[in-house]
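hi!! sorry for the late reply, been swamped w classes. u asked for the two structures so here they r. pasted raw, havent cleaned anything up. first the sequence of the first protein and right below it the tokens
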Amino acid sequence: MDVLIAGGSGFLGTALTRSLKQDGHKVFILTRRAPKDASQIQWDGKTTKGWGHIINEVDAVVNLTGYGLEHWPWTKRQKQRFIDSRVIPGLALAAAIQESSRRPRVFVQTSGINRYGLRNDSIADESTPPADDFLAQITVGWEDATRSVEEFGVRHVITRNAVVLAKRGGLFPLMALPVRLFFGGRFGDGKQATPWIHIDDHVGAIRFLLENEEAHGPFNFVAPTPTSNADFMRIIAQELKRPYWFHLPTFLLRIPLGEMSVLLTEGSYSMPKRLLEHGYVFRFPKLEDAVKDIFK
């Protein structure tokens, strides 16, 4: 399979690229950085100029673009960057498919588990409607940006990502930092959900959906074991052999982080209902095993 990955130079794209290449697949990477080898193609993230023809050569497109929400502070300008970095590249990828003479079989569009709101009275699945808050509405525009590929006969898959557990990259190292510094404890009341997925399952589930021709629409990329923030932080502390005692109230987190504090103090419980229904088997369904693997 020949695969084009937009945003492939980030930590998620790097892991997916490595996995695909190990199994003999050919990978092209769209990146805004200077290309390091022939497989990398520089783009502006806005247009099809200079790379659009590549669409004719690939069987699948994976769109991982999106400026990380862990970047602080959340100013008005920064929040607009979160939106633009998700919507504009998606529109460019959809335009390239519309202009192509040979279209890929499948398009995988990344999104976020925050679609279901800051907190929810019930456990969300893929049929749960989006909430009205900022994080939820980001995912609406993110997913809609590439939905038009369905009109051209391309199978459209959406991955609604939880926090990806990896040694480097993403939100997890920031969440684990207080524990490493011996100030581990819950954030806020600790009752909020902390949805997570191990990097190996993130890559594995994408590959599963790329190859499963019956799979289309949204899939929650979250481990099948709902986890509260209190349990999440406690398990990290146990694995790192650090104390679990310094509980940070919401108002203290809001002082340095502002609105960004909701990433730590709020969260809805959700389940990977459709992944399980399609037969995906999680390598790390339990947090204890996932954290042990990350810190080994």
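now the second protein. again sequence first, tokens right under
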Amino acid sequence: MCRIVPTALLLSFAITSRAVAQTSPDCARPAERPSFVFHNGFWLNLHNFLHRAAKERRGVNDELPAAMTVAAHDTARTRGLTPPERDAWERALQVYLTYPVALGNTDSIVSRLNERLAGARDDGDLRDVDIDATVRQALLLAAPVYREVWWAAHDRRNREWIASLRGLLAPSETCLVRFITQGLSADWPAAPVTVDASVYASWFGAYMTQPPVHVTLSSNARGNQGTLGLEVLLHEAGHALLGPLDSALVATAARQGRLLPRELAHLMLFYTAGEAVRTFVPGHVPYAETFGVWKQNASAERYRALLEREWQPHLEGRRALADAVARIVDRLPRQAM
């Protein structure tokens, strides 16, 4: 899943051998503080919607099947645009077609815009929001049109999706979070993870920015519905927890003289988040199985088999993380001498 994370790996090699509980009677017991807080904001939805409209104008169709809409009627226009509305929308769209800051070509720009728009008052005019002036003007041009023609449907869709996800999360939130943190040998962020619902959320249907840890999920993506949405939520938050695992993989590969694939930690996250939900939510079929992540090529299939053999025992509490990582790395190709 798409995310925005620092590119530098954390190189400290501190690994603990925490066991991951498979079942627990306290899954539904409220945590001392919530792990997630949910939000549905006008300005972030408009910003992402303009990105989507700009992609359509350019003829870009890069969305994965999991990110495609499940409710096209919820995102269609309620009526045609008047000439003044069409002019305002077109001028705003041109900014998102051509202006580098609006295009979001760097992680830092995306993160900065995302955080500031997510925190903006829905009924405000962005004057107190520290964003690029050209982007602000484009959003202000588009806002009246969006409110009148699209926002009621988008707002309804987001609220219904948040209610559904909260309902799925509540019975097992404590155990799901424990499974992820213990599996990755990491601590949950000090503050609850903010989760923004957006009708569109990148070509992948989801992304994470940090700091602070902030997850944006498409309420309209096929891969974010039902228990799949629960898994994607854990997966995106899990990107912020990968430091210890990344460090372990890097240090172990260097020590053993092995080539470390760039995608390995991400595939391990796919596997871990999928197993978390499958463990505590009966009948769940993990995202990677549903959308063919393991079938995309021969390497992915080999990694799945390797994780089932060497990583699964760690998730079941039968193997320390350091031992699991060593066994996985030992199966990787050797570096050329």
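hope this helps!! also noticed smth abt the second:
The chain has 14 helices and four strands.
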